[in-house]
Structure formats: C-alpha cells, structure tokens
Amino acid sequence: MSGVYDAVFGVLTGTLAVPAAEVGPQRDLDALHLDSLARAELALTLKELLGVPCSDHDVPATATVGGLAALLDARLADRTRAPGGEAP
Fold it and tell me: Model's pTM, two decimal places?
C-alpha cells in the first residue's frame, strides 16, 4: 500500500476511531458509518496532513477507502511534478 493509503487508514482509525479491522481498500466509506461531519473532518485532516486539496466533496459516502487514497495520491503526484512543487 502507498504512503497516502497509510495516511487515510491512519486518520480513519486514529482520528475517527474506526476499528482497523473494518478498514480496507475496497471498503466504502458509507459502510464505515461516517456521517457528513466525519467525512468533512476526514477531508480536512487529510488536506492538512498531505498538503493537497481535499474537500468533503472528494469524500462522498460511496467512495472506497482505496479510491480516496488513489485520488489524493494522484493530486500529490501532480503537485510534485508542477514547477516549484506546488499545485497548479
């Protein structure tokens, strides 16, 4: 798994107290019983932790844990490829 997936996993299991056994790449966030406030907290924490854009619109209830990690991983890669290392 990628470092971004590990970050998503860590926020879910640490900050949001989702049991680790319930979190997996194919698990959808709705199945983790995250309400809209928890999804917003997830997005904000990941934005701060990874330094890439992430909003509650990026964390829909039907997104998978792995899908969210892939989205953020792509944004992180785009940021590092941009001149000056900043997001375009």
Answer: 0.84
